[in-house]
């Protein structure tokens, strides 16, 4: 019992994980309040979790702020474009669905756009958190990685959808949703990013 509760025990580590996930989720939300900075906040999360998973020393507060500042110029335009396209496509899907089956082809095209954005998003924000690249290089590299490692990309998107659906049934999970998703996706794509660096 003593081993479970000491500083190296699983209970303590689990409590730290829950605390960090909650606080990073809150920091992400605060950083995303202007809406156009959602991409910046997301990249800052990947900045913190990247350090954690690679075994580097980190502080969730100072590293989130540091990551936010470092990626701001690079993440703001790409995050704004992705947010705008996703919002517009989802709006179109709802409107086209109301019009009936005669517009099913157009609705399917909108779903295709959403899927492409989600697949590219798997890598684009982690890349902005670690590399200083031009906008064109970011998009091109994200597309290449997303389709070269399609299994991982689809798995990460599936996890995101599953977590969103879970939150719909358990709204309180929204306090952890983005932080938990970013942690899992960072674990899944870290090896791929290491290969990309090499």
Oligomer: single chain
> How does the helix and strand content classify structurally?
mainly alpha
Structural domains: how many: 1
- The shape, in one word, is globular
Give the distance, in angstroms, between the N- and C-terminal Cα atoms. 44 Å
The sequence of SSEs as H and E is: HHHHHHHH
Total E-strand runs: 0
Mean pLDDT: 90
Q: Summarize the biggest pleated sheet.
A: none
What percent of the residues sit in helical stretches (DSSP H or I)? Answer: over 70%
Beta-strand level of the residues, as a percent range?
under 5%
Helix count, DSSP H or I runs of 4 or more residues? 8
Low-confidence stretches are: none
Rounded to the nearest angstrom, the radius of gyration is: 18 Å
Describe the model:
83% of the residues lie in helices and 0% in strands. The protein has 8 helices and no strands. The radius of gyration is 18 Å and the shape is globular. The protein has one domain. With 198 residues, it is mainly α. Keywords: Membrane, Transmembrane, Transmembrane helix.
């Amino acid at each position: 019992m003593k081993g479970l509760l000491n500083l190296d025990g699983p209970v303590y580590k689990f409590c730290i994980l829950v605390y960090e996930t909650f606080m990073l989720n809150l920091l992400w939300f605060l950083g995303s309040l202007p809406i156009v900075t959602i991409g910046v906040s997301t990249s800052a999360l990947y900045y913190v979790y990247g350090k954690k998973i690679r075994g580097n020393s980190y502080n969730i507060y100072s590293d989130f702020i540091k990551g936010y500042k470092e990626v701001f110029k690079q993440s703001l335009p790409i995050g704004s474009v992705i947010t705008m396209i996703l919002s517009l496509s989802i709006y179109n899907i709802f409107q086209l669905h109301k019009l009936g089956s005669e517009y099913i082809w157009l609705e399917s095209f909108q779903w295709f756009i959403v899927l492409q954005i989600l697949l590219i998003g798997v890598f684009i924000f982690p890349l902005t958190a670690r590399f200083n690249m031009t906008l064109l290089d970011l998009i091109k590299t994200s597309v290449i990685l997303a389709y070269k490692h399609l299994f991982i990309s689809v798995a990460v998107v599936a996890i995101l959808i599953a977590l969103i659906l879970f939150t719909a049934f358990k709204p309180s999970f929204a306090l952890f949703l983005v932080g938990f998703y970013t942690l899992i996706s960072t674990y899944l794509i870290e090896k791929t990013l290491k290969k990309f660096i090499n």
